[in-house]
Structures are given as structure tokens and as C-alpha cells.
Amino acid sequence: MNESDFLKVISPFKDKVFRLAKRLLVSIEEAEDATQEVFFKLWKNKEKISDYKNIEAFAMTMTKNFCYDRLKSKQAGNLTLVHTNYKGKETPLEKSIEYKDAVNIVHSLIEQLPEMQKIIIQLRDVEQYEFEEICELVSMKPIAVRVALSRARKTVRNALTKQQNYGVS
Amino acid sequence: MGLANIEKLVIKYKNGTTSLEEESILRNYFTGESVAAHLQEYVPMFTYFTFIKKESFNKNVQLKIEKPRNKNRKFLTVAASIVLLLTSVFFIKKENDRYQAKKQFAQVTKGLKLLSIQLKKGEIAIANVYSNQNN
């Protein structure tokens, strides 16, 4: 497999990798770095690529793991920032009200979800993966995936209902 | 699709049990024109999902990246070996100079010794001549 073959193979899902990375790492620069890193690693292991049944699923799993590691090392380095974390938790609603745009509101609501729910709602509602694919990707049982997805959807939906009932935004 | 059906699908959707086809029906409904008032909160959700899917990776995937860290390390190794080479050349030269100086010193000492032996011989010979004359 040469370079252009490889680029052709990854082109249908490179945006998905980027969007998943951005979902987890938030910043565009970090997501770009992560995307770059994942494809570089994949390219270095290109001899094994024909063995992988589904390169896309493999790349997505790599992305998830890579971002998890990033987040872990970030948290380890940011232990002193407890104060700002606390502040952020105290006013999530106020903060989201500031965004006029509905898209931004939903974005910030999803940002506050637990990591696993973020991943699952991203894979299902944005990328429209089948449940079997998601289960493999996050190595979870179908029931657990459905529960996490249901929780994520309900959290977002309830927050939006609250905002509408109070007549804000 | 009738509102009753949409409501059923919404419940299934909340429970995480809709299929991809059913979800695409919901997506079409909620990004469409007329959405029932009591389901308004789903509009921003589905609008967001379709919107965010348009985001793309705009950079070229680099397959031959050298991390700057590694580059730096490479440069450092090269620099370090050059420094090592230069210092060893310097020391070898210094050592060599010392050796040469020692050698020259030894030669000079040897020469001077020889000279002094010869001079002594001459002195003794002259002393002998004098004592013979006196006797």
C-alpha cells in the first residue's frame, strides 16, 4: 500500500475521526493533532491494515483511546485547577444561556455529559453508526450502550425543555 | 408521517431503542418546517446533529512527520559528537606536543651529557700534561 492508496482508504472517515477527537478534546488544535497522530500511527502499521476487518472502526477506536490518554495526562497536570473546575460546574446553565444560538446551546450541553455518553451520542446521533459498531468501538454491551445513549439524550432534552419553559434564550 | 407516530418514535428515541431508519425519520421531521409545539425542544437537538456533521478535517494528513522533539534530539547528538571529536583532537594534539617536547629534551640532554663527558676527558688530559711538566 503506497501513500495515495492509504489516503484514499482513510478519506471517507477522516472527518469522523476529527469530529470524535474534537468532541472529547474540545479544542480544534488538539483535535487536529490527535487526528494527525492517529493516521500517522495507522500509516506506520500499514502492513497490518489488510488484517483489520474494518479500518474505520479500528481508526475510531484508536482515536477514542488516544483522546482518553490525552485527557488523563491533562487531568494529571491540571490538579491545581480544582477551583476553576468547581466554578464551571456551578454555572453550566447560566453559561449556556449566554449562547443565543440553539446549536451552541446543544453543543455546551453535550460538553457537560460524562465522557462515555459524549462518545456514544457522537457516534450514534451525529455519525449514525449501527449499535453493533458502537458496542465494538467502546467495548460495551448493547444494553449498556443503549442506557448511556438514553441518559445522554434525556439530559440534553430536559435541559432544553427547562430553558424553553423558563422562557430564556 | 402523522404526529401520533412521531410521538411514539420520540419515546423510543429517548429510550435509546430507535433504529437508524427511525432516527432519520425524526431528523427529517425536526429539521423540517412544521414541528408540533410540545416537541419544540427536539428542534435544536436534531439541528445541531446535522449541523455538526458538516465539520471536516481541513488539513492534509501528513505521513512523514518528524516530531520537532526528535529533530532536536538528533541535532543535539550530532552537536555532542562534534564537540567530543574536537576535544579529543585537541587533547591528542596536546599530548603529542608534550611527547615531542620530551623527546627533544632527551636528545638535548643526551648531547649535552656527551659534550660534558668529552670536556671532562679533555680537562683530565690537560691536568695530566701539567702534572707531568711539573714533575
**Name of the level-1 CATH class of the largest domain in chain A:** Mainly Alpha
* Oligomer description: heterodimer
- Annotation field: number of helices of chain B: 4
Number of domains of chain A: 2
Q: What is the domain total for the residues of chain B?
A: 2
Helix/strand/pairing category of chain B: mainly alpha
- Total beta strand runs of chain A: 0
CA-CA gap between termini of chain A: 53 Å
Hey, which two chains have the biggest interface? A-B, 40 and 28 residues
Query: Do you know the CATH topology of the largest domain in chain A?
Result: Rna Polymerase Sigma Factor, Chain: A
CATH architecture grouping of the largest domain in chain A: Orthogonal Bundle
Q: Quote the average pLDDT of chain B.
A: 90
Q: Pick out the low-confidence regions of chain B.
A: none
Distance between the termini of chain B: 156 Å
Helix and strand pattern of chain A = HHHHHHHHHHH
Quantity of strands of chain B, as a count: 0
Overall geometry of chain A comes to globular
- The residue-averaged pLDDT of chain A reads 84
Question: Helix and strand string of chain B, N-terminal first?
Answer: HHHH
